[in-house]
Amino acid sequence: MTTPRCILITGAASGIGAGIATELAAAGHHLVVTDVNLDAAESVAASIRTAGGSAEALALDVTSDDSVAAALAAVSHPVDVLVNNAGLQHVAPLEEFPIAKWDFLVQVMLVGVARLTRAVLPGMRERGFGRIVNIGSIHSLVASPYKSAYVAAKHGLLGFSKVLALETAGTDITINTICPTYVKTPLVDKQIADQARTRGIPEAQVVSEVMLKPMPKGVFITFEELAGITAFLMSPAARNITGHSIDVDGGWTVQ
C-alpha cells in the first residue's frame, strides 16, 4: 500500500510539473502546486480537486528567499517530497545570449534548486524522511548547440545531487535527478519554433531530425512515465538509490 505523501512541485502550473502533479494526486498523494503564476497554479490544483484529489496552490519564486520562506510557512502539510521542476529555456549562440538571461536560467534551475532544497531539509531531517527529485534533462548528460545556460544548469544538478546524497546519507532522505529527453510540453513547442528559426528549417524537420532522431525509440516522453519514476523514487524500494541520474532517453546515450 502506498503511503500518502505531501509533494511540493515547483513550476507546476503547466507542462511537466502539472502533468506529474495530476498523476501523483490520482495515486492518493497531497499535492502542493507551486509556480510564479499563482492563477495558473490554482487552476491545476482546482482540476485535481475536481477529479477527487487533494491539492493546494501557492505562489513560489525559486529565485527569492522571501518567496520560498512565505510558501513554506503557508503550506498546509509538512513537505515529504520536493520535486524541483521549475525551468525555462532560451536558445541563442553564446555571443548573442544576453548575460542577464543566462544568469536568470541558472538562478531558476540550479541556484533555485539549492535554495528550496536547503529550506525543506531541516523538516525532512526532523521527521526522518524525505525525497528530493530533480527534473533534469537529457541535457544533464549531453549538449546541444545554442543552449549553453540550460545545459550548464542541468549538468550542475547532477553534481549538486551527488553532494546532497552524501550530506543526507545518515537519514532516510534521498536526492536523484530524472533526465528525460523531450516531453511534449508548451516549453518544447516553443523550442521547436526557436530551433526552426535558428536553424532555418521547418518545424516538422526539427522534430524528426533534431529532437527525436538521436532517440532510437523515436517517441516523446510522457507525463505518466515521469510520474511513475517519481513514485518509485518515493517508495521504500528506492531508499538506497541516491545521488543518481535516472536516464529516460529512449536509448540516446547508449549509442
From TrEMBL:
InterPro entries according to UniProt: 3-OHbutyrate_DH, NAD(P)-bd_dom_sf, Sc_DH/Rdtase_CS, SDR, SDR_fam
Any GO BP annotation: monocarboxylic acid metabolic process
A molecular-function term among this protein's GO annotations: 3-hydroxybutyrate dehydrogenase activity
Region forming the signal peptide: none
EC numbers, comma separated: 1.1.1.30
Record's keyword annotation contains Nucleotide-binding: no
Keyword terms, alphabetized: Oxidoreductase
Domain of life of the source: Bacteria
Keyword presence, Oxidoreductase: yes
NCBIfam families, A to Z: PHB_DH, PRK12429.1
Similarity-based family: Belongs to the short-chain dehydrogenases/reductases (SDR) family.
Name of the protein this chain belongs to: 3-hydroxybutyrate dehydrogenase
